[in-house]
Design goal:
By secondary structure, this protein is mostly helical. About 75% of the residues lie in helices and about 5% in strands. The protein has one domain: Growth Hormone, Chain: A (Up-down Bundle), CATH 1.20.1250.20. It is built from 20 helices and five strands.
């Protein structure tokens, strides 16, 4: 029924007050910034007004998601400064503070996936942005007192998971705004804008908490400086974003996505790409501080700068280009290249650690980050393609299928993103285990090399399956 409504031309529908006759299906605007009649696959509607609406919503979605990633990553930055502020946590406790936001954020992505269909993209962006105020202010309160119990710190760190949940709803929302041929680039930009939050936070927070502080760190500012920007995101979403009435998902479609073997294959691949990006982003400040203490905090103009932000930065910037390459060549080919480079980068880090050369360490890790970022965009681009093919589309790479297939794919995007985010929990925990059991990180990194080899084999299988059908995946 829903697919019939979305495909119907305006001339076949009953005239609606306020609608404008045009050669394309009419867009009808209702109170609450709801839009009826949206069809991104219609070229006339897209050229006339659809592209402008999609771009406006994408800009504000990126900003809100950017702040979500900022809040999500705050604890991975703050933990490095906790000893200097008077906190005495052991290695295991430190890695729990780093990984707990990812565990909660990954879990929240499951319900967040269905919030856009339930409440509307604009409406949920307002709510999800407002929720970021809780962990931002909570962190400021906790780190102001070195006597704060570890249990309380861990609970507030868990609340930072609100920021991780935002990704699923944001991506599920944006996928409805763009035609299939542009999804890779649009989703890549949306994700990259969010991912940049990790880089900006890792760059800005060390400066803010140390500048002009003398011997006293201003740790509460790590959370408080983001509060005004969160308020801007709330107001901007309220005034400038839209809800699409056809961005609906039903339980039947979601269960169909869960039953599809494609979803579970993509979940594994996304753990390897995005999970590596967010996991290594979270632990990178700690790795640098442990392996190369003299480079962990560089004094610049009375403040402290950490080079850890470079990893999240290059990975974020690589993501939309991974999506664009996937638009052109197919996501599986780009993902194959990503896993090869990620395995080589991790192995190179292991082999060069005994040399005690920071610049080799940094360079090979940046290669790993770039490959994981490009792999994020490429892997995510494969999801709507696979579900369009599953729905019977002759060429899922350039055709989205009917509205039911699009809704199932949107649900799959959110579910896969949730599984991928668990990498942000697994990687710090694995590296923490490696550190406590062997005294170093080499063993943990070698485990990841093996995992990338397995995921590479899975991706090759998917690519060969597509080639056998004569389509790009």
């Amino acid at each position: 029924m829903s697919s019939t409504v979305s495909a119907a031309p305006a001339s076949s529908a009953a005239p609606t007050e306020g609608a404008t006759l045009s050669p394309s299906p009419a867009l009808v605007r209702r109170p609450g910034r709801w839009i009826d009649g949206w069809n991104a696959e219609d070229p006339v509607q897209w050229e006339q007004e659809g592209a402008a609406i999609a771009q406006r919503n994408l800009r504000w979605s990126i900003f809100a998601e950017f702040l979500g990633f900022v809040v999500w990553q705050l604890w991975s930055i703050v933990v490095v400064s906790l000893p200097a502020a008077g906190f005495t946590f052991d290695t295991a406790q430190t890695f729990w503070l780093i990984s707990m936001p990812s565990l909660v954020g990954a879990t929240l992505r499951f319900p967040y996936t269905f919030m856009v269909p339930r409440f509307g993209g604009r409406n949920w962006t307002i709510v999800s942005a407002a929720l970021l105020l809780i962990p931002a202010v909570g962190l400021a309160i906790c780190v102001a007192n070195p006597q704060t119990p570890f249990g309380v710190m861990l609970l507030v760190a868990a609340l930072a998971g609100f920021g991780g949940g935002n990704f699923a709803s944001s991506m599920a929302n944006i996928t409805f705004f763009y035609p299939q041929r542009k999804k890779g680039w649009a989703l890549g930009l949306n994700a990259a804008g969010g991912n940049l939050g990790a880089a900006v936070a890792q760059f800005a927070v060390p400066i803010v908490i140390t500048i002009g502080a003398g011997v006293t760190l201003q740790l509460p500012l790590a959370g408080l400086i983001w509060v005004p920007l969160i308020v801007v995101a709330i107001v901007g979403a309220w005034l400038r974003m839209d809800n699409l009435s056809n961005a609906r998902a039903d339980l039947k479609a979601s269960l169909a996505a869960l039953r599809a073997p494609e979803l579970w294959l993509m979940a594994l691949l996304y753990i390897g790409t995005f999970g590596s990006f967010i996991g290594f982003s979270g632990v990178f400040p700690k790795l640098i501080a442990d392996q190369f203490p003299s480079f962990g905090a560089l004094p610049v103009a009375g403040a402290t700068v950490s080079l850890a932000f470079l990893g999240a930065l290059v990975g974020s910037l690589a993501r939309p280009f991974g999506g664009r390459l996937a638009d052109r060549f197919g996501g599986s080919i780009v993902t194959i290249a990503a896993f090869v480079i990620m395995a080589a980068g991790a192995l190179a880090v292991v082999l060069t650690l005994p040399l005690d050369n920071f610049w080799l360490f940094l360079g090979f890790f940046l290669v790993l980050f770039i490959a994981s970022g490009a792999g994020n965009g490429a892997t995510y681009r494969m999801i709507p393609t696979l579900f369009a093919l599953r729905a019977g589309a002759a060429d899922g790479h350039s055709t989205a299928g009917d509205i039911s297939a699009q809704r199932t794919a949107a649900a799959a995007l959110g579910i896969v993103s949730a599984f991928g985010a668990y990498g942000g929990f697994v990687i710090p925990q694995v590296l923490g285990l490696s550190k406590t059991s062997t005294g170093g990180y080499e063993a943990g990194l070698l485990w990841f090399v093996g995992a990338y080899a397995v995921l590479l084999a899975i991706t090759v299988g998917i690519a060969l399956r597509g080639r056998a059908r004569g389509v790009r995946i």
